[in-house]
Amino acid sequence: MKHPALKIFSMLFGVFYIAAFYFDLALFRYYPEARQFHWMRTDGIGVVILWYGWIVTAALASAAVAVAVPRPVAERLSPRWVWIVTTLVVIVTLLYERRYFV
Amino acid sequence: MIVVLLLLHGLLAVALLGAITHQALSVLPRAAAKGQRTFLDRFRGVNAPAYATPVVVLFVVTAIGGALLYPQYRIDVRPALEDMQNAAANGVFEIKEHLIAIGLGILPAYWLVWQQPDNAQGAEAASARRALTWLLAFFVWWGFIVGHVLNNIRGMLP
To answer: Which residues of A touch B64 (CB under 8 A)?
Structure first.
């Protein structure tokens, strides 16, 4: 199979994304009213967007693992694990976000 | 400018919705054909692998459009929803942003399984292809419906 590391990346992306969201691990923050990016929390310049930072955190973390995993291990990984892990991540996300509906 | 971007985002989302829905229905197991082909038979009778790359491109481009629109939502729409005490609307949007992000993450594997010939890893690859396509279809439908409802929410509520 070509590019087996893509399976590792996709399998882990959702896990890292939800971890970044839950533990507030955005790599950077965007303040739209000030039109400024900041590495750290910056008070007094309006509302903040963390979503971009969560995505970049998850992308970098899952890419690092995907590159580090030896190719034979990645080749042996069944593609089923990608959708199984992602489905579990989605279920956890939906359960957590119930807070908006109770 | 923001209205043009919103319209473009919506049009790209329609194209993505059509492509992923054709592909998702095409991977469902089908009974042996009897008699005339129905509309559903024709709808799902597409060259599904040919949709994979366009779906990836449309998903990424539509997500980028959404990301560019997001600051306006964060500044104008979300505070208005909070003022209206409409937590559910904010909740469905927050779920939308999670699903689109997770969708971006599974695109590489989705693309990979659609590039494999049918005999590669046999049933495992086929089930992964089906499941990843349906996951993406769920994400896209959620994003599309939530986007439209929130865009029109002031006209929908009393």
So the answer is: none
